[in-house]
Amino acid sequence: MGWRLGIDIGGTFTDFVLQKDDSSAVVVEKSLSTPDDRSQAVLDGIERLAAGEGLTVRELLQRLDALVHATTVGDNTLIEMSGAVTGLLTTDGFRDELELRRGFKEDIWDVRLEPPTPIVPRRRRLGVPERVLFDGSIREPLDEDAARRAISRLAAQGVESIAIATLFSFVNPVHEERLAELVREMLPTIPLSLSHRVMPKAPEFERTSTTVVNAYIGPRVSGYLELLGARLREAGLASDLLVMQSSGGVMTRRYLTEAPVRVLASGPAAGVIGSARFGRAKDEPDLLCVDMGGTSYDVSVVRNGTAPAQPGWNWHHRYVLGLPMVSVETLGAGGGSLCHVAGGRLAVGPASAGADPGPVCYGRGGKRPTVTDANLVLGLLSDDAEFAGGRFRLTRKGVHEAFREHVAGPLDCSVEEAAFDCWRVVNANMTQAVRRSTADKGTDPRGLAMLAYGGNGPVFAGVQAEELGIERVWVPRTSPAFSAVGTLAARPGLDEERSLLAPLAEAPVDRARELWSELAERALEFLGEAGQDPAEIRFRFQANVRYPGQNWSLAVEAQQTTGKPALDFVTDGLRAELVSRFHTLHREEYGHDRPTEPPELTGVRLQTWAPVPTPPLESGRTAPRSVAAASGHRPANLGRGFSQTPVHRGADLAPGHAVAGPAIIEERFTTIVVYPDWEATVDDAGDYQMRRA
């Protein structure tokens, strides 16, 4: 096995994890993100890694068997609303589907909640006379003259990308294909997103929304990946760049160029994939995963050692995506979250100082106080120690003045009180996000262990666990770059679906076999391109089934195989087996079933993946327990007022060492706060476990 490099771009830092074939350890590195050209932060970090290994950048890249990358480019495009000027061609009479949103409103009780900014305003959503029926038959042929007029109208509005989504194109795409041909004739350089390729299944709103998001972010995501790939090849990378998907797998740039929307939330998804593997190694199959970085706070739940993936109804930045996504709830709370007073009320986030200028204490020109600045005032962070792996030291210059101007003055309190209140508010926001996320899933967080990662996750994890009633908190030694670890744990794979609407007991077996075969051939093609051995590829065939009248389907297992599948399991007898399995699964998921009601098939699904060598993890705590000696003390407020608090250097702690709270542990890229009445111990792998003392 050669070397493997995982990279995750965040809003403030870009994280790197290097896995070497000659070591059981991994190397962690960080570089400040470069919003104007995010590929530059990638190259900066690779240069630092190479220098640490005594290699040139070219020598390091040539040693890599794989470079896996998670990116926030698509997410930032949606957050900033900076995507391509997008137009939509759809069936006449259906152009307002995006604004109707199925009547969905995030908060039905908030009468002041503004609707999301439309990605495609109504003037650029144009209907074309045509109609394909549910069975694929053509009721009304495409009016090509009207189509040309619509394309001319979009051209006059300066569109840079076009989405095409017509009724039932996933059954018969002939009209979408012809519309695409007409666009290429009239606007040959405009990128196209066709719904039957981006999301070839029902329902209509979800398919249209997903296709429009794809068209909106596609040029920026594809342009970034092309630029990064070119710069890496020029620097010496011989292998293909692999990119993390929101579904939890990784795939080649060429595959993702077809549907760039698949990279949304790829960083948080990588963290959950890494969490699931960490939990299995530590015999903690049920985890509450919290990731607090510089810009956001991500919450997810791992059950039975598996990262959950929601196949359809995924609302992301207020836009629905109908593709599989690892379930993560994101809150605008991070180290860079701005602290301010609005209407006499203290608020923290969601706006962030980002990487440029960053918090005031970074000394890079920031003028408004942030959570990181509050942590410095409270003594949780220090301006005496190196920060971010030695990139720079924090500074107190301007921090007190910023708090005095923006928080302490308006609230008529001291700077220390203002910082502590900011600490309390951001913690309350995050704790409430956990409660909301777990309650939605019917999960009691008290039955979970917490896994905290991200540069700021371990600072707040202990106090959140206390408030949530959680007994155990894990902090991996790689927590500052844990999502980058997750990219290395993620397997190359595809997760795709095709629609097939029929009563399950009467479903056309030949058509199901044909669709599964088509998906299998695509998987073999793209995984082969990624360098995977066809004999080792794992295939998981599923059928999407529901009771008549239900909105959502359940994925019912049909068969799992390794190597190119023969599909000999697709027989008439499979239908009865799927019916029985669906009733059982429905009872397990929802607590009831209707065995006398014949279910219906809505489509077929195929998940494929290939094995990869993953970063090693140790599970035991066999080292003899010993109390660790502090390297120093400093005044800090860990929720009970300022006191002289022991400070430990993470580099001095070995397996078996125990640190009793209140205490602070300074690692190279993060700080772990051990709150009063808690104790942290180091296990054989160098990972921390915190328990109530």
Set out the fold topology.
Blueprint: E1 3-9, E2 13-19, E3 26-32, H1 38-52, H2 57-63, E4 64-70, H3 73-80, E5 86-91, H4 97-100, E6 125-128, E7 131-132, E8 138-140, H5 144-156, E9 161-165, H6 174-186, E10 192-194, H7 195-198, H8 204-235, E11 241-244, E12 250-252, H9 253-258, H10 266-281, E13 287-292, E14 297-302, E15 309-310, E16 314-316, E17 319-321, E18 325-326, E19 329-331, E20 337-342, E21 345-352, H11 371-377, E22 386-387, E23 392-393, H12 399-411, H13 415-440, E24 449-453, H14 457-468, E25 472-475, H15 482-489, E26 493-503, H16 509-529, E27 538-546, E28 554-562, H17 572-590, E29 600-609, E30 626-627, E31 632-637, E32 642-649, E33 657-660, E34 663-666, E35 671-674, E36 678-682, E37 688-692
Parallel strand pairs: 1-4, 4-11, 5-6, 5-9, 9-10, 13-24, 24-25, 30-33, 32-34
Antiparallel strand pairs: 1-2, 2-3, 7-8, 11-12, 13-14, 14-19, 15-18, 16-17, 20-21, 22-23, 25-37, 26-29, 27-28, 27-29, 31-32, 33-36, 34-35, 36-37
Helix pairs in contact: 1-2, 1-8, 3-8, 5-6, 10-15, 11-13, 12-13, 13-14
